[in-house]
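@channel anyone free to eyeball this complex?
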Amino acid sequence: MGRYIVRRLLWMIPMLFIVSVITFAFAHAVPGGPFNREKPLPAEIIANLEKYYGLDQPVWKQYVDWFGGIVTRLDFGPVYSSRSRRVNDIFADHLPVSAQLGILATLIAVGIGMPLGILAALKQNTFWDYLGMAGAIFGVSVPNIVLGPLMILIFALTLGWLPVAGWGTPAQMIMPALALGTGSAAVIARLTRASMLQVIREDYIRTARAKGLGERIVMVRHALKNALIPVATILGPMFAALITGTFIVELIFAIPGMGKYFITSITNRDYPVVMGAFMVWAVALILANIAVDITYAFLDPRIRFD
Amino acid sequence: MATLLQVKGLKTQFFTQDGIVSAVNGISYELNEGETLGIVGESGCGKSVSVLSLMRLIPSPPGRIVGGEGWFQGRDLLKMDNEEIRSVRGNKIAMIFQDPMTSLNPVLTINQQVSEALELHLGMDKKQSRKRSIELLELVQIPDAADRMDDYPHQFSGGMRQRVMIAMGLSCNPQLLIADEPTTALDVTIQAQIIELVKQLKDEIGMAVIWITHDMGVIAGLADRVNVMYAGYIIESADVKDLYADPRHPYTLGLLGSLPRLDAGPKEKLTPIEGLPPDLIDMDPGCPFAPRCKYAFDRCLEEMPPLETVARRHIAACWVDVTGGKR
Ligand SMILES: Nc1ncnc2c1ncn2[C@@H]1O[C@H](COP(=O)(O)OP(=O)(O)OP(=O)(O)O)[C@@H](O)[C@H]1O
Ligand SMILES: [Mg+2]
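replying in thread with the prediction:
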């Protein structure tokens, strides 16, 4: 197991290399440069800026400097729109906020989605099942851009229970985390339900019942662990996406997270920020998937790593 | 010998979108203590459903026991509440299933799965149940039983898994073991070993056995009595030697005819029964076997023949007297 994890971690190196090449290529294929403004700057100022940031160098040299900086010094490069700050400063300011929000949203997604899915499966084709699945369809289909303002309208403006926006206090975190987690909770609920319904038709569930076990033990001990195996699969990418920043929720609730800054950087063509954010997301995704594989091994003894 | 199980008019149906599937159509039989009953018949004739009904393990919906009684030690299994039937399952009546590959839980260890019933029904603690589980695995001749307790099912071969299933079934010393085609999924040598094992254990423990199969050959060496089922009916029932020596239903003749005979000359071909079993939805009146039966005449298509005593301890449901029918 330990060796497996080390091997997976080593595999990250070539994967991140490929991601970096693709990211870099895309960033540089986009027309327009960071210093193209609506009111054009004088040519010599642009030339000076480009020289300052090394943009006059051949593209391969730019890539090597950028990727080399990340690999050797964990330095994601400069920020074009602000001379005093570097991408690392941006990350230090904004990533923890997004991560915090993402972790809360994931906890909500799992904490609501799984029990709901299990309940719906156990009460299949009853009122509770229909209610739960109607809720799940609502959760999947109502986009954050609607859900967020709706929540603000109800819980902040009408009921006055929660602050409208901002980030820092627990009260400020509730609505954004709920808004962000609802969609994922719905996905998890539906998958958990489907998986449970599949598992409770398996022969070994009949065997468990034939032993005289009570329905609760049959469900908890015999069905649940099997049913969660497919659910674990989607948690990896879901978690990676949620913690690396989500533009809409951050915008609606005025949260100083990475998502909002990321979009601003795209419009400003602030490539190092965009590329850096991609790299961080890739790392998060790979690590989350490794975590999922470890979870697999825990859930399913048939899976062995060597 | 005292009667252990008395089934009266058991009737089970599945209420599906396509219609009502009449899987078991009012069957009655008795089983004495320590006796072995074989239930034979082609695939889909209701063998599994008939015993699952007694265990109250019919998936519901769509299935429902619509009538009948199942008297076991003075109590009707079909009228018990959930609590009562659970105290019987795995305790007084144990069941083993066809496919050992899918009948064990892949994510639980052998110890966890064998110990469960011991802790539930006999109130053992973890240490006692583990010790007893090792003994049980040794009883079913699993080599190095103690070392294999914490293995998972996928680390066992099919035959070994079926032994684990048997150990699980025997764990609480049941009075009745129901084996639903326990060897069908195994290859022939393993099959013979498992049959031998059950025979031996049955004599040691003195339990009654219901052994379901569609293989007449297996039944011959194992059962005391045989119920032949067709389309949810018992169409013939007799002591095993009488059934082989003097079959009275054309379907039984057919089943025996499709059995390879050791004394058959090399040129004698096997004669499988032609045609397919009927659809159990909207069954026609009359004998369900009539469309495939070479003895059938008008009456067979109109009226289901009742089960009648044709010899001592021998009943059959046929309008035709096929005594001495050519096999
Ligand atoms: N869950 C179900 N829903 C609908 N019909 C069912 C269900 N389970 C069984 N049946 C029907 O009941 C009938 C009897 O099935 P059963 O499993 O008892 O057959 P069997 O004699 O055990 O056959 P096999 O030798 O293949 O195990 C079949 O026609 C089958 O289609
Ligand atoms: Mg069957």
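from a first look: Chain B touches chain A at residues 55, 57, 59, 86-91, 94-95, 97, 99, 102-109, 116-117, 120-121, 152, 154, 165, 168 (CB under 8 Å).
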